[in-house]
Each structure stands twice: as structure tokens, then as C-alpha cells.
Amino acid sequence: MSHQSLKGKVSLVTGASRGIGKAIAAELAAAGSDVAVNFVSPSSEDKAKQVADKLVQMGVRARAYRADVSDIAQADGMIADIVRDFGRVDVLVNNAAINRDKTFMKLPREQWDEVVRVNLGGAYNLIHALLPSMVETGWGRIISIVSVVAQMGNFGQTNYSASKGAVMAFTKSLAREVGRKNVTVNCVAPGYIETDMTAGVPEKVINHVKDITPIGRLGSPEEVAFAVRFLADPRASYITGQVVAVNGGMYM
Ligand SMILES: NC(=O)c1ccc[n+]([C@@H]2O[C@H](COP(=O)([O-])OP(=O)(O)OC[C@H]3O[C@@H](n4cnc5c(N)ncnc54)[C@H](OP(=O)(O)O)[C@@H]3O)[C@@H](O)[C@H]2O)c1
């Protein structure tokens, strides 16, 4: 049995119905945290409920909450529901994100805005709502999932990489503002991870990624989740404003 370092804490993981978010929810529950499982698509409701049920079987409190993180009213409504059910949120994991890949010359303004609204605007909505209570409590963890493409750039992902790079810069500035309140603010930057988001990537591109990755394969959601658990741990109290890369060495 692993060390229950997050026992008594409450975590919110956005976009936890599948992929990396689902693995993060399981990892935080394994550390003893209660978990709010966020999702947005009506078609993901059953999946999100199954994720929550599995966490309950692990011995923590868990529940699924539907909200579009890019909509401030929906984000606020979800947080009110979570506070009603669990009392507060100690660990926020900004994981929900979308991509709308196109080369820049073909990229309509709507798809630029859509990606920025979810990936960057969603981070604003959740952090702005939850930070006051973390500061008041004198303890908090904010962890945002960014991407190696914010560090390296990527063909066809100007909108997505800009949104992720903005979250990295936001993280560093916010870390400076709230460090004295024992609220740490960090990012985890995954490389290519096997999820729905990469399922449509052409085999040629995947093979190229494997070629330029020292570990020689794609990563798993669990490998990303472990880095999130590490940053959420009370013992990670002197780590803030950092970007932890989980990319198999693809970018150093
Ligand atoms: N996969 C990779 O290789 C990779 C690499 C680097 C970074 N990342 C980042 O890692 C995170 C997770 O990626 P993933 O591959 O696990 O993605 P995914 O499989 O596409 O899952 C996305 C999750 O986000 C949720 N979501 C999307 N838009 C939302 C919104 N507006 N409000 C609330 N929830 C929303 C989805 O909910 P529904 O199920 O309800 O649609 C789903 O749970 C993202 O931040 C992504 O940018 C992924």
C-alpha cells in the first residue's frame, strides 16, 4: 500500500473522463485524495461516472461534474457544487484541453479563439475561482498540463502551442504572487502520450516522434499522472514555477 500523502485533501481534475485526466484522477485517489471528476461532453457522462465509481472503490470520495471550463458561469457552478459536496478544493489540475490543428495560413480566427478559450481561458476561470480559498487556507497546489510543443513548436499547431506556452508563462507569474501563501503553481509538459488526442496522428509522424525520443516509444497517461502526484504531494512544498517534462527525452 502506497503512502497516503493526500489523505483529507480534495482534488479537482478537469477533463478526467478519459486519457491523461483519468489517469491523474486515479493517481491522486491512490494517494488518498477525494476527487472531483470533470467532463464536458454529454456522450462522456457514463465514462466520467465510471471513473468516479472506480475511485470510490479505491476508498476515497469521488463524483463526476459536467462543466465546460471555458464558460465562466459553468465553471463557477461546478465549483459551487464541489464545495457543497466536499467543502473546498486543495489541488487543482488543469488538464482539460482541445486541439484544432491546421497550418497557420489555413487557420480561421474561430479555431484560434476556440483553442485559446478552452486551454488558456479555462485555466483563468478555475484558478481565479479557487485561488482565494487556497490563499486563505494557506495551502494549495495548482498543476496545469501543458505540452512539449509549447517548448519546441510544432507544424500545424500554432494555436495549440500558443495556448500552452501562455499557460506556462501564466504559471511562472502566478507562482511569484502566491508562493508565500504555500500555494505552489507548476506545469507538467508531456511529450506524445497514447490517448484519443494522438490516436488520429499519422503513423509516419508517430514513427518520427519515436525516432527523436531517447526512450523510443510514446508515453502512457500513467507516466504523466505520476509527475502530477509528485507535484501535488505536501513534500513538494519547495517546488514552484516549474515545468516538469514527461517526454521520454524528446526535448531537453
Ligand atoms: N495526448 C498527448 O500526447 C498530449 C501531449 C501533451 C499534452 N497533452 C495535454 O494533456 C491533457 C490531456 O490530454 P488527453 O490526450 O488526455 O486529451 P483527450 O483524450 O482528448 O481528453 C480530453 C479531456 O478534456 C475534456 N475537455 C475537453 N474540452 C473541455 C472543456 N471545454 N471543458 C471541460 N472538459 C473538457 C474532455 O472531456 P469529454 O470527455 O467530456 O469530451 C476529456 O476528458 C491536455 O491538456 C492536453 O493538451 C496531451
Structure characterization notes:
- The chain is built from 9 helices and 7 strands, in the order βαβαβαβαβααβαααβ.
- With 252 residues, the protein is α/β, with parallel strands linked by helices.
- α3 (72-86) packs parallel to α4 (109-137) and α4 runs parallel beside α6 (158-178).
- The model has no long low-confidence stretch (mean pLDDT 97).
- β4, α4 and β5 form a beta-alpha-beta unit.
- It has a single domain, classed as NAD(P)-binding Rossmann-like Domain (Rossmann fold).
- The radius of gyration is 17 Å and the shape is globular.
- The protein has a 7-stranded parallel β-sheet, sandwiched between helices.
Highlighted features:
48% helix; alpha/beta; seven-stranded parallel sheet; Rossmann fold; 252 residues; 9 helices; binds NADP nicotinamide-adenine-dinucleotide phosphate
Furnish the topology, listing elements before pairings:
Layout: E1 10-13, H1 19-30, E2 34-39, H2 45-57, E3 62-66, H3 72-86, E4 91-94, H4 109-137, E5 140-145, H5 148-152, H6 158-178, E6 183-190, H7 196-199, H8 203-211, H9 221-232, E7 243-246
Parallel strand pairs: 1-2, 1-4, 2-3, 4-5, 5-6, 6-7
Helix pairs in contact: 1-2, 1-9, 3-4, 4-6
This protein binds NADP nicotinamide-adenine-dinucleotide phosphate (NAP).
